[in-house]
Design goal:
The structure is a homodimer. By secondary structure, chain A is of the alpha+beta class. Chain A contains five helices and six strands. In chain A, a hairpin with a 5-residue loop joins strand 3 and strand 4. Chain A is globular. Chains A and B meet through helix 5 and strand 5 of A and helix 5 and strand 5 of B. The structure holds a DNA duplex. Chains A, B: Keywords: DNA-binding, Iron, Metal-binding, Repressor, Transcription, Transcription regulation, Zinc.
Chain lengths: 177, 177
DNA sequence: ATACGTGCAAAGTATTTGCCGTTAT
DNA sequence: ATAACGGCAAATACTTTGCACGTAT
């Protein structure tokens, strides 16, 4: 239903493709988390970790594969699938479903925020707000549950009038491309 | 990840299989909506509409197919897929994703409610609350959007202590078998 | 050394679709 | 009459996996 705009090569600053282990991709925050979780750091994994660390949007596997391949062409989709799965299990990544059939990923450390999907453009806008968690925790409690995680997504139309240019009160926002 | 418990035959009160057009499946609320939307009422469609009207849980296509087949065996999965898709486009059904790979459906008129998924049992508990909409509408507005729809799902563990037996304040709840 | 990682192609799932005979309106 | 519909099997789309080889620790 809602499909996000594809933003190929957005994060790919590297011009030529470099061999794995190259300085550009060393020691990304996510690579560090991999090591901490006892994962072996192969060339492919380092590149994927780097791509994930650089991403500030919500790429799907195909997109991650594209970005990773641009850095080191000897990476297969299968490896990307295996890696995101692994990182999700380790709690390093979070899988999202914004509709459109494919899973999309973002780093777990990307802070507590929610997503607002512009139904017209498919764009994903992130925002922060503490109220929802509070409210939902309370609701879960009333139902006799201990909230372990939750999902909140808003779908809306951009209001043409009052287009907000400056940061909104209580909300830091950041949109995909 | 979270997979709902399969509840086959739960809604299947009919003992033997009846031919399409049988009285049991005539004039279900959803069948009526189909007519209002200018859809042709074939035997299969009537049965599927009936099954959907009776369901008070969130069946996936396979489950719908099972229930519908029990009433009239000459229905194929393809038809179920085509029907739910059509009904979703008409706004009669809503598609849900509770994890586990398959889409699940519920009638749009089933009232405003949310879902809490018991991560241990996979059970889905419905609850009502006005707060979330208010809060989210407000948030969307701050971001310069007009909220057209939203998604809220809670995932939690049942609190063993204080197991609530009676209806909870401000919440009508109803769980998938 | 050896358990873990990877590429490749084949296998799975869930869902859609082409073809063509059937049916509601 | 005729546009929709439905069955079937083949086709898609996304994701997982078996196998044989490579590599980080």
């Amino acid at each position: 239903m809602v499909v996000d705009t594809k933003v190929a090569d957005r994060r790919t600053r590297t011009q030529g493709r470099k061999p794995a282990g190259s300085a550009v991709v060393d020691d990304s925050p996510i690579a560090r988390l991999c090591v901490e979780n006892g994962l072996k750091m192969t060339g492919q994994r380092r590149v994927i970790a780097h791509v994930l660390s650089e991403a500030d949007d919500h790429p799907d596997v195909e997109e991650l594969y594209r970005r990773a391949s641009a850095i080191d062409s000897r990476i297969s989709v299968a490896t990307v699938y295996r890696t995101v799965r692994l990182l999700e299990e380790k709690g390093i990544l979070e899988r999202r479903d914004f509709g459109g059939g494919r899973a999309r990923y973002e780093a777990s450390d990307s802070g507590h925020h929610y997503h607002l999907i512009d139904v017209d453009s498919g764009r994903v806008i992130e925002f922060e707000d503490d109220e929802p968690v509070r409210l939902l925790t309370q609701i879960a409690q009333r139902l006799g549950f201990d909230l372990v995680s939750h999902r909140i997504e808003l779908f809306g139309h951009r209001l043409e009038k009052e287009t907000p240019k400056r940061p909104l009160p209580k909300s830091r926002n950041k949109s995909d491309t």
